[in-house]
Design goal:
The structure holds 2 protein chains of 2 kinds. Chain A is an all-alpha fold. Chain A contains 2 helices and no strands. Chain A has a domain of 31 residues. Chain B is globular, with a radius of gyration of 22 Å. The chains are: A mainly alpha, B mainly alpha. Chains A and B meet through helix 1 and helix 2 of A and helix 7, helix 8, helix 14, helix 18 and helix 21 of B.
Chain lengths: 54, 371
């Protein structure tokens, strides 16, 4: 509750919204991109290093 | 009597803000000892907060100032701590079930939502970026990023980051309950572990460093030290060094880190309206991280045949192993025969990697705008 009051007492900057939303989009896209590349690499690695069944 | 009055008049002035900070320090010590909340960090941080707020001490803070300059100004402590953390993490459950990688990414949503909110309520770009990283649920990353942006709120950010990490078992369940149905929470996920070869375990940290460091160079050191620690663990020829990194190195660095951060807990810097706002924003970040992971799992369920228990998404935050334990426990509560731990652990260690990448993304996106 105190935090909310503190936040309200700070100065509001609604003009930053578009820039921040742009960062949200780029940031999340970037993280998913890197994670997907790592995922594909691990899948390939698992496939090529799989032990052959006796 | 006159002598006593004279002696008292010579004592340095004690402000109410210093009193507040000493109480905060004592609360941190209490939480560390009595509640076992991140004791390796909160204990030195609390004790340091008491020291740095003693009246008239500011000009004598040579040791803590030196520790801060040597360990945090240079970003050395968070990086060294990452070697220890990397050595502690077993990526086996993730390597065996790599689709869990996605949940680590989704659960970073709170970071960017917090950036949006922090900017809206008036924090400048560098401080907003530093505050948002509380949502990485990863202390060293929070310190690293706030140092890169030279944030004035490093003390508050550290306190919020580590406190909320310890509070994951309290923060996450109500959020998960609010956005999932009982039926969803009861979804069973059979676990079919695949063999993970030593070669895969050894190549994994090297490749992750290469790809994450190339795409987000700002995260190269962080991810590199984390993965180096993991390589020590998995290479098979540095067993005793791995054990030392996991215990002695990690504990000692955490202790020094706690003392160093207390340098930023001096009353004049800490007792501000902004600190209260940061504490609130930290909670906001953890709530949206959790919601982001859960909602992403629900979204995936629209397309997949084998349904995913959406609670797994909540384990994608970096707080390891608390988040995976929370999910497992909630699953067992709904259905005592539902074992989600290994899936959740996979998502949880993925969160460790994704949070560092998120730190790099925040730096890459914001730093060019600050120049």
């Amino acid at each position: 509750m105190l935090s909310v009051i503190a936040a309200i007492s700070l100065s509001w900057k609604p003009d930053t919204l578009l820039q921040s939303l742009g960062m949200l989009g780029k940031g999340m896209l970037g993280i998913f991109l890197v994670i997907c590349v790592i995922w594909v690499f691990v899948a390939l690695l698992n496939r090529f290093t799989k032990k052959k069944e006796a | 009597m006159e002598n006593l009055t004279e002696l008292l008049s010579r004592l340095p002035a004690f402000t109410w803000k210093q009193g507040v900070m000493i109480v905060i320090g004592l609360v941190l010590i209490y939480l560390a000892i009595k509640k076992d909340m991140e004791p390796a960090l909160l204990l030195p941080m609390g004790f340091g907060a008491v020291i740095v707020n003693l009246p008239g001490i500011s000009e004598y803070l040579l040791g803590i100032t030196t520790l801060f300059k040597a360990g945090i100004d240079t970003e050395l402590f968070p990086l060294l701590l990452f070697i220890g953390i990397g050595a502690m993490i077993d990526f086996g459950p993730l390597l065996s079930n790599p689709k869990m990688f996605l949940f680590g990414a989704a659960a970073q949503f709170g970071i960017f939502m917090t950036l949006v909110l922090a900017r809206l309520i008036g924090f400048d770009l560098g401080d907003a970026g530093s505050i948002s990283i509380i949502g990485a649920a990863d202390g060293p990353t929070a310190i690293y990023v706030s140092k890169i942006f030279n944030s004035n709120y490093q003390g508050a950010i550290m306190v919020a980051a580590y406190s909320y990490m310890a509070l994951v078992p309290i923060i996450q369940p109500p959020v998960i309950m609010a956005i999932t149905t009982k039926k969803e929470r009861m979804i069973r996920m059979p676990y079919h572990p695949k063999d993970v070869t030593t070669l895969t375990r050894v190549l994994f940290p090297i490749f992750v460093t290469l790809i994450a460091g190339t795409v987000a160079p700002a995260s190269a050191e962080l991810i590199g030290f984390l993965m180096f620690g993991n390589l020590i663990r998995e290479c098979g020829v540095l067993g005793s060094l791995s054990a030392t990194a996991q215990k002695e190195l990690a504990n000692l660095i955490t202790l020094l880190l706690g003392l160093s951060v207390s340098f930023k807990m001096q009353a004049e810097l800490f007792v501000t309206v902004e600190t209260l706002a940061i504490i609130g924003l930290g909670l906001f970040a953890f709530v949206f991280d959790t919601a982001g992971g859960v909602l992403f799992a629900k979204f995936l369920n629209l397309f997949v045949k084998e349904k995913i228990n959406p609670m797994i998404g909540a384990a994608g935050i970096s707080a390891f192993p608390m988040a995976s334990r929370v999910v497992h426990k909630m699953g067992r509560k709904e259905d005592p025969n539902n074992f989600l731990l290994m899936h959740a652990a996979g998502a949880n260690v993925s969160g460790q990697i994704a949070s560092v990448i998120a730190g790099g993304m925040i730096i890459s996106l914001i730093q060019p705008l600050l120049k």
